[in-house]
Fold:
Amino acid sequence: MSRDTDVLVLGGAGVDTIVYVPELPLPYADSYLIDSGIRTRAGQTGDFVAVGLSALGLRTHHLDLLGDDPEGDLVRALHRDRGIELTAVSQPAGTKRAVNLVGPDGRRLSLYDTSRAHPDDRLPEATVRALAATSRHAHVSITQPCAHTLPVLRETGVTISTDLHNWDGENDYHEPFAHTADLVFLSATALPDPERTMRRIVEHGRAQTVVATAGAEGAYLLTDDTLTHIPPATPPAPVIDTNGAGDAFAAAYLYGHLNGEPPYRCAAYGTLAGAHACTIPSTETAAMTRTELLARTEAP
Structure:
C-alpha cells in the first residue's frame, strides 16, 4: 500500500491567547496594562508539530476535533496557508483554547480550557485506520480522544511517537501513550530522576528510544540501553519565548529519524530547532526550515 504521508499528526489542534506579562509568577493586582497587546492565534502542540514537520519538507496530515467557530477557522487557515492537509472532525463543544502568560525571560504559564472536551469524544476509527494506512509514521498528542486511537494505530502497523510533555513519571493517564509508542519524547522539567523514568518507559513499553528535553541544558537520549547527554544548541538570536520549543524539537528529531539518521544526530537536530523556536514570539508561527536546519548543522 502506498504511504503518501510521511507523518500523521493526531490531536493537539487549537488556539492560544498570548499575554506578555511583566513577571511570572504574576503578583495580584486589580489590573495590568498590556502594551504588547493580547492576541489569539492558531497553534497548540499538534499544530506546532505539523507546521514544524511541513517546514522541514515532510508530507504531513493533521487529524483532530475542531469546532465550527472562529477559533476553528483560525486553525483551518493556519493549515491551509501552509499547505498542510487537515482532517477536522466536528466538535460541538468548540475548538480547544488556552491562555499563555509569557514572562520577560520567555517562560510561560498556560491556562487550558477543559470545557471544550467531553469524556466520550472520539476520532472516528475508520478515519484513523484509513489515514494511518497511508502514513509512514504517526505522532500522537496526549489528548483523551487520541488515547482511544492507540490500539487502532498499533493494528495498522504504523510506527508511533508521542510527547508526554511535563509528565511527572507517576500519573497513570500518560502510561498508555508511554508504553504504546515506539519513540517517546518528554520534558525533564517535572522528573526528579529523568534517567529512571526513561528506563522505566523502555522496560514497560515498546519504545526503543526515549528523549527527555531539558531546556537550556540540552536533552538526554536513551537508546540501545545507553543514556547520552545532548548539548544545547546556541540560539541564533535572543531568547524571547519558549512556547513551542518542545514541539519544534520533536519535529526536527522526526525529520532525522524518517531520513534514516542515527538517534544522536536526530537529537542534535532537535536542539537546533528547539533553540530556533525560543527566538520566535508566541504571537508568530515561524518554524525552522530544512535549509536552515542543515545549514546550522554544517556550521562550525
In short: The CA atoms of residues 67 and 74 lie 11 Å apart. The first helix runs from residue 45 to 55. The chain has one domain: 5-13+43-92+118-298.
